[in-house]
Design brief:
This protein is an alpha/beta fold. Helix content is 35%, strand content 20%. The chain is elongated, with a radius of gyration of 21 Å.
Amino acid sequence: MSSSRTPSPRRRERGRPHTVLVVDDSAFMRRVISDILSSTDEFRVVGTARDGNDALKKVHQLDPDLVTMDVEMPGLDGLAALGYIMSETPRPVVMLSAFTVAGGDATLRALDYGAVDFVSKPSGTISLNLETVSDRLLEALRAAAAANLSMIPVRLPRGPRPARPAPDASAAVLPPPPARRRRRRGQETAETSEVAVAIAASTGGPRALAELLPRLRAPLGAAVLIVQHMPAHFTRTFAERLDNMEGLPVSEAVEGEAVQRDHVYMAPGDFHMRVARGADGVPRIALDQEPTVWGVRPAADPLFRSVADVYGARGVGVVLTGMGRDGADGLREIVAAGGAGIAQDRATSVIFGMPQAAAEHAQRVVPLGEVHAEIEREVAARSAPRASTAAAASASASIGEVAS
């Protein structure tokens, strides 16, 4: 059983480094992570912990601003410890995980239980290559430090913390993932989509998407293409979890597949995703590993630009919570082509970086709870029988006048 709680924002004295508690069962990993954080003047490691129980004691003793938490640890693991931290003394937590099928699901469940973000270990639980992701770790901690914790609804375990948690304590704290709904492509529309909705998200995005997608009406009348900043392998697990929810079917995108109406396509981790018309004129998924954009791959700007090129005034761009400015330039091109631009507002964003940059070009800046209605409105305006490009552009211009 679980309950919901919204953590209160924590205050830090301006000018001092953010204090961090490092939690990992490997002494080697604790040292490497501590060295990474000590390489900047932004963070100061105030303590380390070897497992979940040790972490709970240190959190109360040291009161760190931030916590890095390994997912898989003996005794009280990272998920269970996260649940108790967010229940007893909420603060930003960044999870670290080596990808396995079980570990990937556990890491995504950690986002349900209040973690701000996660960083993927490049290989193995004890990795000599962890330093290669130092930039990603520092970026995640910067985002966590700036996160609006009031916009992270946390699902918490009920009841007192057991004195001696069982090794599988996380199973008692976190419900198992729901059974996967099986869908066959034959059960979906066979029609390719001439209207496309492109969505960009980063920090806070998994929760935002889990709230947004089930609210979209089905059938929607458009294809939905998503770039969520997330490492390779995790995107497939994330797509499967979204597919288990009510609403449109969700899958990780595959090179060359036709972009179909009323289907959601998730960009695979470590691949940029674009839409391109094939020799048959059908819009198809195009994946590549060209250089990172804004330091990330997948990035939203390449997708948004391709939507502007292929769909013109029948494209809709949406920028959700996240750090940085990915998606803003691409949204400008969608709007310039006669399409629609929507951005999430500050109040409901975990990080108002990407939406703030996009707001300069968006016709609408709205709370997360209203994004689905704006998408449906724009799709309907662009899906009307025999609607011309000029008519769609006119509708977008009218909305812009209302917004101003």
